[in-house]
UniProtKB/TrEMBL annotation:
This is PDZ domain-containing protein. Transmembrane segments: none annotated. Residues 111-168 form the PDZ domain. The keyword Glycosyltransferase does not apply. It comes from Ditylum brightwellii. Residues 1-18 form the signal peptide. InterPro entries: PDZ, PDZ_sf. The lineage of its organism: Eukaryota, Sar, Stramenopiles, Ochrophyta, Bacillariophyta. Coiled coil: none annotated. The keyword Signal applies.
Length: 206
């Protein structure tokens, strides 16, 4: 190889990993450590090129993570983060299609329940209060605010006050079965409320 007599240091790089540095007075051979350092330097350059801010802030599903993702420093979104990143439910949301949010009780009359009607946009009636010492209060299952959904096998949710209360008055059973939803009228009758088909099936199987 021709020796370069310029005072500047010249680096000649070949694909066969033979690296030679030549100065104006002597020839130097690169050590294996120098070759490794230079090669890693080249890969680091590739890494830097692909690690643009847009990629650093990107999120990948956890099950799609690969070794190259970890090496490049790309963020991986965990399952918990994916759930947390979804649309948050309102703080007062109660699922009206969850059977755990319903109460069923069988009571004799007079029950000692004071009912009130919901706002006109929803319809139906709810428990305003319980008469102290009354059957419902002594039973302990019903709470003020509970929405009346069914009387016996009859669905009364959404009915006018007189119609819903009339179902209790007309009941001939020794003990009348009442089904209540423990949540607000909005949760029961609003956009996120239970479908009528679901309510019918639930009441029939309860």
């Amino acid at each position: 190889m021709k020796v370069i007599t310029s005072a500047a240091l010249v680096a000649l790089v070949s694909t066969s990993d033979a690296f030679t540095f030549v100065t104006s007075t002597r020839k130097l051979s690169c050590s294996s450590q120098s070759r490794t350092s230079l090669k890693m330097g080249l890969f680091d350059g590739v890494k830097d090129a692909f690690s643009a801010p847009a990629l650093e802030t990107s999120k990948l599903d956890a099950d799609r993570e690969t070794p190259i993702d970890r090496w490049m420093g790309w963020n991986v979104k965990s399952e918990d983060e994916m759930v947390a990143g979804g649309a948050a439910a309102p703080k007062d949301f109660i699922d009206s299609m969850d059977t755990a949010n319903y109460v069923t009780v069988a009571l004799k009359k007079p029950m000692g329940i004071v009912f009130e009607e919901n706002d006109e946009e929803f319809g139906g009636i709810f428990v305003l209060s319980l008469t102290e010492g009354g059957i419902a209060a002594e039973n302990g299952s019903i709470q003020p605010g509970d929405q009346l959904v069914a009387v016996g096998e009859n669905k009364v949710g959404g009915l006018a006050f007189d119609d819903a209360l009339g179902a209790i008055i007309d009941s001939q059973a020794e003990e009348t079965k009442l089904v209540f939803f423990r949540g607000s009228a909005k949760n029961l009758y609003g956009p996120t409320g239970a479908s009528q088909d679901w309510l019918t099936e639930f009441i029939g199987s309860n």
